[in-house]
Amino acid sequence: MLWQVDPASPQPLYEQLASSVRRAVADETVTIGERLPSARDVAASLDVNPHTVLRAYQLLRDEGLIELRRGRGAIVTASHPGRGRVAALVSELVAEASRVGLGRDDLARLIRKGA
To answer: How many domains in the chain?
Structure first.
């Protein structure tokens, strides 16, 4: 699985990490039952704080995509191809809107208009 973070992005690092996992679930790079790397391993490979990775994992747990098991790590528990793909697209859309200076309220207005 390809983990991606952009420290210059206005999107928090933990959100970027969670988006990477969502994309991997959506495009079936990772599947149900698969174990994600430990927070420590991800943090070391990306040179980020392990708590950042843990926050991403907790967010994914709250979304129902992974389960955190003591001693076994993070396990993918849900495969929502449609929902996962939409969640990944929404994350990308929010990040892109932020890059061009659109706030979430402006983006929501555009979505409601269908533009």
So the answer is: 1
